[in-house]
Amino acid sequence: MKQFTSVHDVDSLTRWVNDAIAIKQNAQGFEDYGDHKTLGLVFLNPSLRTRMSTQKAAYNLGMNTMVINMDKEGWALEMNDNVIMNGRSVEHIKEAAAVLGEYCDILGIRCFPGLQNKEEDYSEEVLEKFIKHCGVPVISLESATRHPLQSFADLLTIREQATKPKPKVVLSWAPHIKALPQAVPNSFSEWMCRAQEEGLVEFVITHPEDYDLAEDFTKGATITYNQNEALKGADFVYVKNWSSYTDYGKVLTIGEDWMITNNKLKLTDNAKVMHCLPVRRGLELADEILDGPNSLVIKQAGNRVFAAQTVLKKILETNF
Ligand code: CP
């Protein structure tokens, strides 16, 4: 495996989850895998979980890590080819990525969408150019349209916590005041649709009208604008806000009545509640849920280490 940027890089979710469970049970048992190898983590946007869980995963494999907050500490990057760089940008991605590839054996990059131009964001220009020019294996730390390390940790959490062979998983849009990317819900949907194909879950998406995700990510999911209908009998409710895909990057409603509360949870089969974090309390999710027994958000964040460790181990095994 040369890259890890989406579920399309995974041959079998069932096998990958089993691999992650085995790694979690013996996290320090693979310390020689990354001996003298360096993981570079490049952030064009903020992060808590992705940064620290991926570093911890690398340490567990005996790797060195280097982190750069490129947006604050690096030179302003130029993404376009054949331009005269007489403006704000100082360094072209061609050189920046290639130089990082000289220092690191594996690179991770976080590059959020601008949410201004759908075609530009959905072409994954930054991620693709980074992959093209760095010359080493690349892991997405959340790109314009996907967050695969998060989705892998989410699936691992669902498999660990499930009390039925094929639990009902509901992705429920949440209220927010800011325009957020579609990367987490796109990615979660893509992974759950694939998990459904493998017989691991039943998958439903619910959101207000005009918040449909791109069809490429939701093929196979049941989609409804009726949240109460979706919640009936749910075993897991995955809560996430996203801005409109059709009216690209816009907040069309704050949607306060979409917040999951204990009252709404009564419709479910005592569902566990998930969120990738960070979460705005009292807006996206009720305090009573986050502080209550049904919240899985901390376990999810904990599993980010083992998802990342599984991916890194596979890349180390197949490339070095
Ligand atoms: N869930 C997640 O990716 O968290 P960070 O943005 O803090 O890395």
Return the average pLDDT rounded to an integer: 97
Structural class: alpha/beta
Largest β sheet strand count, sense and barrel closure: 5 strands, parallel
H/E series:
EHEHEHEEHEHHEHEHEHEHEHEHH
Distance, first to last CA: 11 Å
Shape: globular
Q: Tell me which oligomeric state these chains represent.
A: single chain
The count of helical stretches stands at 13
Strand order of the largest sheet: 1-7-6-2-3
**Alpha carbon gyration radius:** 20 Å
Task: Name the beta content range.
Answer: 15-25%
Q: Please give the number of β-strands.
A: 12
Low-confidence stretches: none
Helical content stands at: 25-40%
Distinct bound molecules: phosphoric acid mono(formamide)ester
Descriptive labels:
alpha/beta, five-stranded parallel β-sheet, EC 2.1.3.11, transferase, ornithine carbamoyltransferase activity, Asp/Orn_carbamoylTrfase, ArgF'-like
